Amino acid sequence: MRIAAAALAFVLLGAAPAGLPLAVTPGGRVLVIGDGQARFGWPGVYFEGRFRGTAVRVGVVSDTDFFRVLIDGRERMVLKRPQAPVTISGLSPGEHLLRIEKMTESQTGGGRLLAVETMEGGTPLPPPRWKPQVEFIGDSYTVGYGNTSPTRKCTRAEVHDTTDTQQAFGPVVAKRLGYDYRVIAYSGFGIVRNYNGNRAGETMPLLYPRMLPDDPVHLETARGRWRLKAIVINLGTNDFSTPLHGGEAWGNANALHAAYRAGYTAFARRLMAAQPQARLVLMGGPTFAADVEAVAKTLASPKVRTVRFDGLELGSCDFHPSLKDHARLAQLLEPLLR
Is 326 helix (H, G, I), strand (E, B) or coil? Predict the structure, then answer.
């Protein structure tokens, strides 16, 4: 269902506006806080606004994140850990589409959008209308962990700097199909077990409702803005990629697989109850595709589909999917999301 953007977009005001405030439509999970600002932390967040004029001012701040600013689909600048507003001027007279994209992953902290304003006598226009919406839930594969790196060997800083969620398979296929999207993903996390058994009990089903990944207080309650056409889940790599250690909750691999299938089924049913109109697409990699197919069989719904992937080159940081791999995954998903 298409919903008028004017009813849902919000206006973000800076402390000392120098132009006219521009209404923007947010993509992804965004928390509007009491002082009129917006906070965000999940990957793949973006904002879109329309204006008529030759200049626009963007106020976005973050201690960790990189942002891409586009005008009419063309990249104008990349902001790295911005702390002050920037102005883009010298545009041709007429109507323009502004887009601000969060590129990097911030498991803590995140960023704020303080103000978007037209400058030099420009005129704000109504923001873009909502498009069909799709959600991608996952781990580092869905985040796009180090996906622009040409090498597998990366420092921690290099992983951060070469991660571009907007070029991960989810946003790639959503943009191709003309959908709005949100990415609820966290590197290293799984359905019942995280990478190497880290942070036992704090897995993606627990984090999923949070408006910010590191904030257990603010949970998503309003469903109206996001009436999803499809939900794509890719979780399982971290559950099985490292051997079990003594003291973990599962005595052997069979017990872990059984717990994974039960936990996945329960999580999927939660999602289906919250978004009953949505198609559910379950992705399965080499180590857990059989479990994913078992979950789909248990769910026994015509709205549930599975897609198996294998043979990725995994040429980016720490043996993660490259841009070529993400393009291939997007191609696999496209017919299921049309």
Answer: helix
Tell me: do 17 and 153 sit in the same domain: no
Q: Which domain holds residue 63?
A: 5-125
Tell me how far the alpha carbon of residue 134 is from its chain's centroid. Answer: 10
The shares of helix, strand and coil residues in the chain, as percent rounded to the nearest 5, are 25, 30, 45
- Which residues are identified as catalytic? 140
**DSSP-derived 3-state class of residue 56:** strand
Structure token pair of residue 93: 């007279």
| Cα-Cα-Cα-Cα dihedral sign, residues 12, 13, 15, 20 | positive
pLDDT tens digit string along 69-103?
A: 999 999 999 999 999 999 999 999 999 999 999 99
CATH of the domain at 62: 2.60.120.260
Same domain, 147 and 168: yes
DSSP structure string for 84-153: S-EEE--PPSSEEEEEEEE-S--SS--EEEEEEEEETT-EEEPPPPP--EEEEEESHHHHTTTTT-SSS-
Q: Over range 248-260, report the average pLDDT.
A: 97
Q: Quick check: pTM over 0.85? A: yes
Q: Are residues 81 and 170 both part of a single domain?
A: no
Burial 86-96 (b: 16+ CB within 10 A, else e): eebeebeeeeb
pLDDT for 13 beyond 60: no
In the beta sheet, which residues pair with residue 77? 69
Task: Report the run of H or E that residue 60 belongs to, with start and end.
Answer: strand 55-62
- What CATH number does the domain containing 179 carry? 3.40.50.1110
**69 and 31 co-located in one domain:** yes
What would the mean pLDDT of 111-127 be, rounded to a whole number?
Answer: 94
Give the pLDDT confidence of 161-183 residue by residue, as tens digits: 999 999 999 999 999 999 999 99
Residues β-bridged to residue 48: 25, 99
Calculate mean pLDDT across residues 222-231.
83
**H or E element, residue 334:** helix 323-337
- The single residue listed with the structure tokens 């323009």 is 96
User: Of 101, 125, 149, which residue constitutes the final position of a domain?
Assistant: 125
